[in-house]
Amino acid sequence: MNTLPNRITSEDQLDEILSQPGEEAVAMFSRLDGDILFLGIGGKIGPSLARMAKRACDQAGVKKKIIGVSLFESPGHREKIGKMGIDTFHGDLLDTAFMKSLPLVKNVYFLAGMKFGSVENLSLTWAVNSYLPALVAEHFSHSRIVAFSTGCVYPLVPVKSGGSKETDMPDPVGEYAQSCLGRERMFEYGSNKNKTPVSLIRLNYSVELRYGVLIDIALKVMNRQKVDLAMGYFNVIWQGDVNDVVLRSVEHAASPARILNITGPEILSVREVALKFGKLFGVEVEFTGDEAETALLNNSQMAHRIFGLPRVSTDQVMYWIASWLKEEGRILGKPTHFEVRDGKY
């Protein structure tokens, strides 16, 4: 990876950094057989993930067809992804006829999911998060599948525990998290039934400069709003590092499905992070509530042994975020609701 800049001053520069492949990803694509399909490419993660795959293939000197599937609800989104050299299919993945029309490629990345507003439309939440994975697992039974899941399938655990491990039993709180465990079970069923190699990515939380837990805290501090300490501890990982690990995890797909916790190496304190942002913004920080002894935490030591530690530190991301917000950089305006403890998103 190239030297990291002191500041990120534009979305073009940000997207360039988020999609910059490391040497390991380039090497993997040089030996990986088959084309690549991204289901749900139109979300927050999809564009930079697919662009990293395209750049890695180009640097490896290999020609692969890279395909992105989405409803593409934002104006110009499909065209922007097409300009990256990615073929696009427009359609509803819940439409079984559309699903059956998709090309059968060797490597499939499943990015679709529903979280925001899940309480208001529980049936759709279950359809997207559990029914759709069953359709994907059946249609792509002869592919390798990497599927995004979430650390929310774990229960709240004592902070002193170091976070949940892949060998811990899921115990999801709330219907959103339950539906995400349903997603995993459908991919596990397909993997067992058809011997489909699968990697399940339990992620929390991905951050960059336009969204994420760090943005949520930074905005509270900058706007002199009280920071809620109800969920007093959390994990994060830079989105560019997520992209790198997720792409490379296709080589580690297995049957039965393999589970990988993906996050940063440290457990972060909401209080301490807020106070650091207070110094960066030059403001006093106010808090509400008290830290509980439990939190939603991932232990990602297994992934770190396989893929190495994240390249971008949390302190670096915080510095970038402070500079980005001071310069009024664009944010997505989609709070993570990480402070929720009852699972109702």
Can you put this structure into words, describing what you see?
This protein has a domain of 237 residues: 3-Layer(aba) Sandwich (Rossmann fold). The chain is 39% helix and 15% strand. The chain has 12 helices and 15 strands.
- Determine the fraction of residues in helical runs and give it as a percent range: 25-40%
> Percent of residues in beta strands?
5-15%
Which CATH class of the domain at 11-206 and 238-263 and 297-311 applies here? Alpha Beta
> Spatial order of the strands in the main sheet?
3-2-1-4-5-7-12
What is the strand tally?
A: 15
Secondary structure topology:
Blueprint: H1 11-18, H2 23-31, E1 36-39, H3 46-60, E2 66-70, H4 77-82, E3 87-90, H5 96-101, E4 107-110, H6 122-139, E5 144-150, E6 157-158, H7 175-194, E7 198-203, E8 206-207, H8 213-222, E9 227-228, E10 233-234, E11 237-238, H9 239-248, E12 258-262, E13 268-269, H10 270-281, E14 287-288, E15 294-295, H11 301-307, H12 314-326
Parallel strand pairs: 1-2, 1-4, 2-3, 4-5, 5-7, 7-12, 8-11, 9-14
Antiparallel strand pairs: 6-15, 10-13
Helix pairs in contact: 2-3, 3-9, 6-7, 8-10, 8-12, 10-12
Concise description?
By secondary structure, the chain is an alpha/beta fold. The protein has helices at residues 11-18, 23-31, 46-60, 77-82, 96-101, 122-139, 175-194, 213-222, 239-248, 270-281, 301-307, 314-326, and strands spanning 36-39, 66-70, 87-90, 107-110, 144-150, 157-158, 198-203, 206-207, 227-228, 233-234, 237-238, 258-262, 268-269, 287-288, 294-295.
